[in-house]
Amino acid sequence: MESIKKASFKKVMIVLVSILFMGISLSVLNVVDYGMDSFTYMNLSIADKFGWKFGNWQIIFNILLFIPVIIWGRNQIGIGTVLNMVLIGYTVDFCMWIWNMVNMAGHLENIIIKIIVMLLAVAVFIISAAIYMAEDLGTSPVDALPIMFCERFPNVSFRVVRTLWDLSAVTIGFILSRKIGIVTILMVLFLGQTVQLVRDKMIKEKE
């Protein structure tokens, strides 16, 4: 993993754009209201419950998770870590402000259109996350902690740890919001493997 100082301008721009598209796609999924990835779902539920701005809570949450990463997992930290921590939440907030102004939800009353938009948003999120990971400029704190746990306990299956990690977030989100979408369930089950497959294919094409 490249350090913040050694990261090339081109790679940083690629990571920056991919993170912005992750935020945009998550904001669209929020409007569609069929669910999203586990930790965004949890953090949106917490922010809504207490009347906070999503971006503000997201950065507080990331800082809390970042503390153990600094102590035990510095190899996971890069410029991409910082950009992910700061930008995704505020990108979602900014896009939601735009979607509310143009009444995006009102244009998605047709179930066919709604499903198409949902599928496009999920695809954009997966591709953007894969690009972000492929550039290898740092891991988000949410993703870093399961990796760190498995590095410490190599006999434990990463897939099991990651699934339990995501399920804990979904459980908290459900307790607070009392609703859960099909996209959230599918992302818990398949997102990690799907993003990894796309990422590996991108890396292979670069070689």
What do you see in this structure?
The protein has helices at residues 9-32, 38-50, 54-72, 79-101, 111-134, 141-152, 158-177, 182-206. The chain has one domain (9-202). α1 packs antiparallel against α5 (111-134), α3 packs antiparallel against α4 (79-101) and α3 (54-72) packs parallel to α6 (141-152). The protein is mainly alpha-helical and 207 residues long. The protein is globular and about 45 Å long. The mean pLDDT is 91.
Main beta sheet strand tally, sense and closure: none
Strand content: under 5%
Structural class: mainly alpha
End-to-end separation in angstroms reads: 17 Å
Alpha carbon gyration radius: 17 Å
Helix content: over 70%
Unreliable runs: none
Q: What would the average pLDDT be, to the nearest integer?
A: 91
Supply the number of helical segments.
8
Our count of domains comes out at 1
What shape does the CA trace take?
globular
What is the string of helix and strand elements?
A: HHHHHHHH
Tally of DSSP β-strands: 0
Summarize the structure.
The chain is mainly α and 207 residues long. It has helices at residues 9-32, 38-50, 54-72, 79-101, 111-134, 141-152, 158-177, 182-206. Helix 2 runs parallel beside helix 7 (158-177), helix 3 (54-72) runs parallel beside helix 6 (141-152) and helix 6 crosses helix 7.
How would you describe this structure in keywords?
single chain; 207 residues; mainly alpha; 8 helices; 77% helix; 0% strand
Task: Detail the topology: elements first, then pairings.
Elements: H1 9-32, H2 38-50, H3 54-72, H4 79-101, H5 111-134, H6 141-152, H7 158-177, H8 182-206
Helix pairs in contact: 1-4, 1-5, 2-3, 2-7, 3-4, 3-6, 5-8, 6-7, 7-8
